[in-house]
Amino acid sequence: MLKLATGADLTVADFFTPWNQDALAANDQDLGSGGVLLLPDQPGARPHLTVAAGKNGTIYLIDRDDLGVYQRCGATCDDVVQVTPLGFPSFGMPAYFNARLYYQGAGDVLKAFELSNGLLSSSPVSQSTTPFSYPGSTPSVSANGSSNAIVWALELNAGTAVLHAYDALDLSRELYASTQVPADQLDGGVKFTVPTVANGKVYVGTQSSLNVFGLSTQATQASFALTVTKTGTGDGTVTSADGKIDCGTSCTASYPGGTTATLTATPSQGSVFGGWSGCDGVSGATCTVMLGSGSKSVTAVFNAQQGFTLTVSKGGTGTGTVTSSDGGISCGPTCATTSAAYGSGTLVTLTASASGGSTFGGWSGCDGVSGLTCTVTMNASRSVTATFNVQRFTLTVSKGGTGTGTVTSSDGGISCGATCAAPYDGGTLVTLTASASGGSTFGSWSGCDGVSGLTCTVTMNASRS
Hints:
Blueprint: E1 2-5, E2 11-15, H1 21-26, E3 36-38, E4 49-53, E5 58-63, E6 82-85, E7 95-97, E8 100-103, E9 111-116, E10 119-120, E11 126-127, E12 140-144, E13 147-157, E14 160-167, E15 170-177, E16 196-198, E17 201-205, E18 210-213, H2 217-221, E19 223-231, E20 236-240, E21 246-247, E22 252-256, E23 259-267, E24 271-277, E25 281-283, E26 286-291, E27 296-304, E28 308-315, E29 320-324, E30 330-331, E31 337-342, E32 346-354, E33 358-364, E34 368-370, E35 373-378, E36 382-390, E37 392-396, E38 405-409, E39 415-416, E40 421-425, E41 429-436, E42 450-452, E43 455-459
């Protein structure tokens, strides 16, 4: 990565290259396959950030004011803001929207990484279910201001291309694919094509045509009613991000077909928010509703505040759910914190459940703990934290034969030599390099996913040897 100074001539003002550039180049894993994205200013000591990824499946978050040059912090160190595993080669660029980066590598699903306080989440906060073959995709985002965001990605198959649309808040929810409608079928795609969003439409170029996608006549003409009902022993208001609903007084509004409405519940003084029903997506006090094919009704529960508030938060690098036996607490995979009111003296039992690829790390703030279960007696307002961590696996290197030599990993975790085993996050791609000692020759590898000369690659989806 180069930063050029402008003047009478272009000159190199700064640069960055990975510490293991020689190994990356020798194994066709260079950084140059992916593009560079400049990010909006971020909070923290280094507000001016840029991001890039390449064939080695690693995301580099870099300070634009100090790119980090080469091996400045050591022979196996990149002096950048953050290095995050993507897991698959990148041949494009990410999209950025509302503090999220959307990446899709070759052979991988679409992934969203959260950007908070100038750092990326260590693992995706959301991902789709459909992997794209080479070259992956460079996604685009359409939105109505800061709401109703859709991520568009173009998939290339043999002889055809497919345009996919995903909910930007939940990539597991695919909203549309061009294969669903016969008239929307695309012909052969062109590598590295980016869906272009302009004037409420999405433009996609293929080998023989330019295709324009927009709302159908039927969807434009159709409108559907969204009705909000409030229930429970307390009171509060429900408002929509577009201002059409303020319930309160205005609890029904009409929306064009295809609209996603975002509702927020706010309890009145002396009440607590109890939960939603009827939503397509829920995050704490926020409810999202997709008005695709008919009118919908949602219910917000407000309860009179009695006794004390129990607040449940989640920590760690993984994901999971926390629920209470009475149903008052229900904190799903995307929920960071939630709360519920309980009468004085109530015994609350909480249960943690780790999501796939994560493990439960433990509780804090409980009166009693038994495995996944936490008990709290509500004699005061209480806070409890459940920790979930990304699942880790051990890579063990053994050396055989009559000679001697060393085996090292590109990240420095293995140096065998002395350190012949190391733990890695699930999905991490580890590159090992063998080096024969004087008087010895390197024979071969076994147990690798891929081998190129002295180099062995292993994807850590289980403990490996």
